[in-house]
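Something for you to look into today, if you have time. Could you write out one complete protein record for me, on any chain you like? The space below this message is yours for that.
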Amino acid sequence: MLSLGQGSPCRDRYGSSFEETINNTTYPSLVKALKTARSRAPHARVAILGYPWIMPPTGGCFEKMPIAEGDVPYVKSYELQRRGIIEVKGRADDDLSADRTTTIKLPRDELGEGPALLLLHAGIANRQMWAEHLEPLAATGHRVVAVDLPGFGEAASPRGPVAHWEDVLETMDALGVERPALVGNSFGASVALRLAALRPDRVSSLLLFSAGAVPDPEPSAELLAAWEAEENALEAGDVGRAAEAVATAWVRPEAPEGVRQRVIEMQLGNYERHRSEQEPEQAPDPLEGDPGLLAGITCPALIAAGELDLVDFRDAVDDLGAKLPEATTALISGCGHLAPLEAPQEFMGLVVENLGPRNR
């Protein structure tokens, strides 16, 4: 079918047939192979390696790989589904359980040596939002690790209740990271906060950008409008309009060039990931049940937000600043919700300035 790189001819022709093949053929074949290996070598360690990425993270490369631009998200979604079978289904069966102590649970980018910095992305992004920060942070003498949280980027969602803080902790264990500094933006900041509340002994510093207050207050009219615009577009089946709505709500018009499009592309990738998986159940929020856990976070903590962020997150700076014993607060001038992308220099300065003594 000749398309000269335009349109989505593969998706139009094949629809969901590949999904059925993966579920009905690929997965059973994987299970059979693992059972055979286990029966013939019951004491062996089995390493399951995922499929290689054959597509760029965003956009296309038609001259080098003749896949139409509109089919790139389609192909990407099946790459994600195949990897998901390896990451989730392949080790979900009790009779196929592997030695999890050697498993790197979450996909990651890593650079540098020294005390660890663990970067947790926003809920409208993935670990690619940290790309330009890896090298500068590593240059300060740190081992910098950026992960995809479950259900985002390359990370499949587990079949059981999702507790993102537990997945991060398991990944820390797998990487041999004992007490990192946790750096989080928005949703990633909320995950970092809950990990620190449950396991304060495993966190050396906490640096939160645009975290939510605890417990969750009533959302502002602006926040409700942002959610509604995205939800209306998704209900209409228009993921492109939904991603545009997300970018309009969370990226300032004055943000550096390319930030808006970058957020749109990351969010489209998240939609593709969610399309290929059943929406997982969320584990109970430990801080909703016991907000007093915050008082046990005794490591140095930075609570920051952009001065142009939604009021929900600006107010959370004072809320969390009052509840964490060793908190420092900051509002970033001229910045909105995504400080690492909108104000990268100011973000870097605050991170380096507020790392705990163990990380300096």
